[in-house]
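Aim 2, interim progress: modelling of the flavin-adenine dinucleotide-bound target.
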Amino acid sequence: MMDAGRHPNITLLTYSEVEHVSGYVGNFTARIRKRARSVNEELCTGCGICQEKCPRRVQDTVFEVGMGKRKAIYFSFSQSIPNLPVIDRENCLYFLKGKCRLCEKNCSVGAIDFEQEDELLDVQVGAIVVATGYAMWDPLQLPQYSYGLSPNILTGLQFERLTNSGGPTAGEILTADGKNPEQVAIIHCIGSRDENAHIYCSRFCCMYSLKHAHQVREKTGAEVFDFYMDMRAFGKGYEEFYERIQEEGITFVRGKGAEVEVLADGKLRVKGDDANLGRLVAADVDMVILATAIEPQPDAGQVASTFGLGRTPDGWFAEAHPKLRPVETSTAGVFLAGCAQGPRDVPDTVAHAGAAALEVVRLFNQGEVTISPTVAVVDAEKCVGCGECILSCPYTAIARDADGKAEVNPALCHGCGTCVATCLSGAITALHFTDEEIVAQIDGLLALTA
Ligand SMILES: Cc1cc2nc3c(=O)[nH]c(=O)nc-3n(C[C@H](O)[C@H](O)[C@H](O)COP(=O)(O)OP(=O)(O)OC[C@H]3O[C@@H](n4cnc5c(N)ncnc54)[C@H](O)[C@@H]3O)c2cc1C
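Predicted structure of the complex, ligand included:
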């Protein structure tokens, strides 16, 4: 991140989102909304005094996953790039009540700008890499795990904060009453491989759960119960890590942890099915870590339509071909990297992102692109300008020309034929797939089978 931030050929636009994309491979225009930080980026030195002096503390549900607080003017996290704070206008006393301005009074370079507005930037780009990642699935949707009923039932992400030296307990693994837990249960596949939530495997939870088991043993010496369906240690060195963890005295229960009950004394009873013993088992513990599923970002549908992406039935962005074109999409010049395409851990994300970057370099090195000859064409004489084809085109390849007639952009057209079927006046033809050609092919086949 630091390298990217310092690179002379990379412009980082953080706190920004792409709102609209037009154009085609080699010639896209992206409209980007750069949201107002209420801080002048040119003047701010990132000293952090504004954050220190801000009197307003709010629960941080993003970086701290509800485990800690932040100020109303804050840095997203301690080593954020760029090192600039942002004012959370929904919680800032000045925006709420018109008073305070302590950050402004204490900023020696005058960088606080309460009047700052969002900026809209139009940027010309030749290719686009979509790397919007994943969202955490909410375990409240499966009430049998009692998430939210005890502060000692954590998601894997919350446990990451708990073990982090910058987290709420400075890295100590403590229960809500400040004690080291004596027994901890880890339950895999919460919302993954479950027909009541997501049927897919979230792929990296087995390995991070093993990491969590190791951290609990190492930092607290607590007894650890690991409930799993089957262990997916698929990466290089992962099986060896699993072997090592098994020697650390962890009790592995092969069978899904089915239920967590909060007992009257605050203890947590985890019930499950031990497939090896062939019977139900239960463990009373002080802390439960739920390895919750991941899922596509909530705005994945919007992002898909902005960039002309397809989605698989489970909602992840679709690659052009699962084996042969894993980073390309159905829109030429738009590529995928990381979990936006499906669950993958960091080494696989890095490899996928590297492949996407190379595809971009390859595209630019070619200097020109070859497009398929099977595109749609409009007969302007027949076109009545009704616009139905424009609405039906899944690739936004059709627009109106100066006379209001439909015009196909061959660089965007995939020759899918939707517009041909939609056009009531028969003005559109799919080259190499005319009705006459298709009928001739059918006749040929029938002649062979006759
Ligand atoms: C609890 C937990 C522990 C883990 N531990 C490990 C581990 O030990 N080892 C390991 O290899 N992997 C681990 N992982 C997996 C790791 O988090 C993922 O492999 C990795 O984060 C995937 O990277 P990504 O860039 O694809 O997605 P993300 O990390 O999700 O990054 C996507 C980024 O895109 C941004 N974004 C989203 N939408 C938009 C938008 N519309 N516009 C602009 N920006 C947007 C997001 O804010 C985010 O910054 C763990 C995961 C979890 C949940």
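The first helix runs from residue 2 to 6. The two ends are 66 Å apart (CA to CA).
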